[in-house]
Amino acid sequence: MTSFRSLRFHMDWQGQKLAEQIMQMMLLVSAVIAFVAGYVLGSFQMMMIVYAGGVTLTALITVPNWPFFNHHPLNWLDPSEAEKHPKPQVTVSSKKKGTKK
Amino acid sequence: MHSFGYRLNGLLTFSLTILAIMCAITSLSDNLNTPSPSAEIQIMNINWFQKQPQGNDEVSLTMNISADLQSLFTWNTKQLFIFVAAEYETPKNSLNQVSLWDAIIPAKEHAKFWIHTSNKYRFVDQGNNLRGKEFNLTLHWHVMPKTGKMFADKIVLTGYSFPEEYR
Questions:
Q1: Are B121 and B97 in contact (CB under 8 A)?
Q2: Confidence band (pLDDT; 50, 70, 90) for A8?
């Protein structure tokens, strides 16, 4: 059941890229298979059915946040650790004052 | 692809765009079809040929229409709309077309047929020019697709003529 709980959270960056690539590839492949099937069988309805099946399969694989999209999680810094390392100070630029001198 | 909704939206829009492209290619594939239709129309009888009170000629005829239009059907054809028109020339109009009969053919199996029928629509001239007039009977068809471009063509059958006198 842990896989269902992890669906609540977002994919990591690598996962998002993977999901987009899989989605585009699967939709194009579904379209090609559907058209060839329809043309060979001489049935427009068959083309539509095969394509609809392909779209549904793609949706099931790429839209939910499956665990294999989370193999490269970003580890954000723990808040208690962040306090130990102070933020670097942003110094106001003194170049203009220097040229005036 | 930041969230569930974002991915779902992307999937839907991309799949619909691809669907539109598939329909366009399907319509283009209709151009690969080389049809070879044939048709024959016999006028069995001129039922009556009168001049109406308003002065226009009217004729009723019985035809025997036979045709083989099966080669017009493709995988992208929804139905075939056909009609028979009488075409002739008068001093007033260079071309008169009067539709006499039409039908919708929903499937390839029904595209080879013959029918014995009187004209479905009244054949009335603009004037009284029909006596002894020669005319053509044209079988027109519109190939209505499931998606994309509609094709229309016809077969012209010549050699028909009206009687010299009213009956």
A1: no
A2: low
User: Residue B125 CB: number of other CB atoms within 10 A?
Assistant: 23
Q: Which residue has the tokens 């630029």?
A: A93
How far is Cα A44 from Cα A42, in angstroms, rounded to an integer?
Answer: 7
What six digits make up the tokens of B69?
């239009």
Interface predicted TM-score (ipTM) of this complex, two decimals? 0.81
Q: Please give the Cα distance from A89 to B132 (Å, whole number).
A: 107
The Cα of A91 is separated from the nearest Cα of chain B by a number of Å equal to: 35
How wide is the angle at C-alpha B90 spanned by C-alphas B85 and B94, nearest 5°? 75
pTM (global) more than 0.90: no
Chain A residue with minimal CA distance to B15? A27
Interface test mutation site (partner A, options B2, B28, B71, B75, max chain A beta carbons within 10 A)? B75
Type of residue found at B13: T
Of all residues in chain B, the one with the smallest CA distance to A21 is: B1
Distance from CA of A100 to the nearest CA of B (A): 50
